[in-house]
Specification:
2 copies of one chain form a homodimer. By secondary structure, chain A is of the alpha/beta class. Chain A has 18 helices and 19 strands. In chain A, helix 11 packs across helix 12 and helix 14 packs across helix 15. Chains A, B: It is an enzyme of class 2 (transferase).
């Protein structure tokens, strides 16, 4: 082996999304002496930081033989500068590949094997095909409860773990799939107004049109580093930030990279993802909201109960107190689906506006009340009333503004430049709204990448509509995306079912 | 939807291996109006041919906003020229993703679902992460026998299928894992000398240091198109070519792209891969050789019997007559392991050289004799003697030369520029040679990409060695790879086990 071959960085500006790619000339000394070829995995070091990148080979004068370039993601990871010296070395065969193949072939993994895999994942040593194979090999009930404990523990151990110095530290999570169910910012505002510590880190959307971090980002900066988070929580008792910037459960963030394009989120991965973030965030108490409904992520009471059992088993093994609640998942919550549209609904609830969505308000109060009781802040049976007082009095809104300002300043959510209403083709009663189709349409319209894009619902189940009345409005940032979503909706009119009386 | 946005091609010379990538400016009209971002999958058309490519976004002046570039593989597929106009359109959501996710979640797939997946695979619509997830979801016994029939049939149906006009058309396949077991060219030479039709298409290595196509390529051109194959077979009765150029079972070639870097080859995929190629190649009779040995791919008689049963079940459903034979898989065959080293052994056998490897010769005779009996060319019990006469008389060698010349000209295999012997550290008897370590070392030395690289064994099991005698020699094309293989061998001295008496 060797200490690495030196090359000089040149900026080419190629964005490959999150994949780390290095570009080198085919006839450079490194490629020739090491036998590197396109798709070789190599180690790239600069200034004490080393990453693993996939090689793309250059057969033109884009680069000189002594130069190399990096994809935008790799350039950022290494904090590259034009003309910098980097060192390139071969990546030795990964020992964890034996465990990965064992899992693919259907064998159980123990703590050590799981750690071995998750460490390589977290260090960026896995190319996307390994990540995809791992996720697929663990789906369909192929991770048992103890393997899920191993996976969760490994995910916690390869990242950093926060400590807030005092207990209880509370958290909440919604096992997603319900469009518009954006209770978190409201719950954080209420329970921190009640004096609890709730340093909430959220993810961006995996397969949905908006994650809490995406929505909150239209209201305040969320990509805070750890010192900034500590400052906000120290001052206000809580925050609503993106977890990705603080390296909690970094392996999870990397696995999501392949889960998202495959619309995949298996039970074991889901439990490990949720609980590893909570444990790493230093939480002592977590409330898990599972919406149950035919077109929600969890479709039946049976599936919800199975998931609850696994969540409780794994949380117990990790030393985290959790409370699991089942909620109505039969239709979207609030009116907006998409980052900015959901943010608008949140503001309406927090500000006690007359037309604020009642369902979003009541759900948030239920969850906040449950948390207040779970942590002993309110006596059993009095939590929701306590939460309602904090919301109605404006204390929750004042706390939300304080948190948003501490995070960098309250923002006004953007408004889409292209909108189009979709109207009822007959009058009658709304009998169903398909969560999955709503999400899909919102995504085709551009959410969550386009923050103002999404679906704005004007009806709920049991609403009465007349022919020609708008059922919902599509919001998009580009005409192409608007057209794309509308042509999908043309093919799927059952998104809102209206039955004549 | 739309007919596509026009862009002009610019050559950047970026080799991403087999992945089709398109490069476009972030601020180009296409990306802005369609909402494309890095990793978006898009359809790219030129002159009536359309492929699917992954988008990498350019944030520099590598391209002007009206220009696009393609990775080398995509450029070849579209037969691109500098300045050509291409059309770019969004890729609609893939319907087969529903079936793929169903398989990942552990459900059975029917004929129609499997066809839906395999058609998208064959048309290049799957990014590598989908391919990897599909392969992983089918491994570990998760494809049942009927799903394997569906997979095999789908693989045949999405590609072209050859018809040779007369029967029998014979074929053979070795279920790999045994280094140096390169009987195919010898068997083809013998049975075609006996008058049978054997249009042999072989694959390149998947996880081994050499596939038959890699080895044969050091002796003659193998990347023949279909008219060329028909000409060779019409003239000589047989050929030994690479199957990848004739679009037989194209989905299999694409799945191999992810199986290879993961060293993965599951039972269902293996059976579908082998049999789909045979059926698509128009074979009526196929001989399947399964070497059984502790360090071979198939480790036990039980596993071999399970595989035989599945092969026979699937072949029966596809209308292919097969005969499965179990052979000794306890150690490598011949002396060389790696394309050129194996080719040298083949030449020695065909030319009846005095020091030709006896094991390679006897195996080839057994397989050729079995085929002659299976197809009725020789009476039962006389096949091997018949094969031996054709080899000893020089008729097989003359036929091989004729085939190689018809394929484009007999070649002399290359010789490595860097070699290093590994010697016995004590005297005694060789009690074991580890097939897997031999293969691994040959691959680290550069095989099969570097044709002259590999391992040249100087001993077999039961050989007697003195201290300091060379056990084998490592061959490489670069000093880096030689060093790499040697350092691996340092850590794994059990590759050849010598026991003192």
């Amino acid at each position: 082996m060797n200490a690495g071959h030196k090359l000089r960085l040149k900026w080419l500006g190629i964005d490959t999304y999150q994949e780390a790619v290095i570009y080198m000339r085919r006839d450079c000394e490194v490629c020739r002496s090491e036998g590197f070829e396109a798709q070789s995995r190599v180690r790239v070091a600069r200034n004490g930081i080393e990453i693993v990148a996939t090689l793309n080979v250059i057969d033109s004068d884009l680069l000189a033989p002594h130069q190399a370039s990096l994809s935008s993601a790799a350039w950022r990871q290494l904090d590259g500068r034009e003309g910098d010296t980097i060192r390139v070395r071969p990546l030795p065969p990964l020992e964890s590949l034996i465990a990965l193949r064992s899992k693919i072939y259907g064998h159980r993994l123990n703590d050590e094997q799981m750690y071995c895999i998750i460490e390589d994942v977290a260090r960026g040593r896995y190319p996307n095909i390994y990540l995809a194979a791992f996720v697929a090999a663990c789906a369909g009930g192929r991770l048992d409860a103890d393997e899920t404990v191993s996976l969760t523990r490994a995910m916690v151990n390869v990242g950093q773990r926060l400590d807030w110095g005092s207990a209880p530290v509370v958290d909440k999570h919604c096992v997603g799939g319900l469009p518009g169910n954006r209770t978190t910012p409201i719950v954080v505002a209420i329970v921190t107004a009640a004096g609890l510590i709730m340093p909430k880190t959220s993810s961006r959307a995996i397969t949905s049109p908006a994650g809490t971090a995406d929505t909150m980002e239209t209201l305040a900066p969320v990509a805070l580093d750890l010192p900034a988070i500590r400052r906000v929580v120290g001052k206000e008792g809580g925050c609503i930030v993106w977890g990705g910037a603080v390296n909690l459960s970094p392996a999870d963030d990397i696995l999501i990279r392949v889960e998202r394009p495959m619309d995949l989120d298996s039970e074991g991965q889901l439990v490990a993802s949720v609980l590893s973030k909570k444990v790493a965030a230093g939480s002592s108490h977590a409330l898990i909201d599972i919406p149950v409904g035919y077109t929600a992520k969890i479709r039946s009471q049976h599936a919800a109960t199975v998931l609850k059992t696994l969540l409780e088993y794994v949380a117990g093994n990790l030393g985290l107190a959790i409370q699991v609640v089942f909620t109505d998942g039969s239709q979207p919550v609030g009116r907006g689906v998409g980052p900015a549209l959901e943010a608008r609904d949140i503001l309406a609830v927090l500000r006690n506006e007359a037309d604020a969505p009642a369902d979003l308000r009541e759900r948030s109060l239920t969850l906040a009340g449950t948390l207040l009781e779970f942590c002993g802040t309110a006596a059993i049976g009095t939590g929701v009333a306590h939460a309602r007082r904090l919301l109605d009095s404006g204390q929750a809104w004042a706390k939300f503004v304080a948190i948003a300002n501490a995070q960098g300043g309250l923002r006004t959510p953007p408004v889409a430049t292209h909108t189009h209403p979709v109207c009822a083709v007959k009058g009658g009663r709304v009998t169903a709204i398909d969560n999955r189709l709503v999400s899909r349409a919102a995504k085709l319209a551009g959410a969550p990448r386009a923050a103002s894009a999404g679906i704005d619902l004007h009806v709920m189940v049991d609403s009465h509509v007349d022919i020609g009345m708008p059922l919902f409005t599509v919001h998009a940032e580009t005409p192409g995306e608007l057209e794309y979503a509308l042509s999908y909706l043309d093919m799927h009119p059952q998104i809102v079912v209206v039955e004549e009386r």
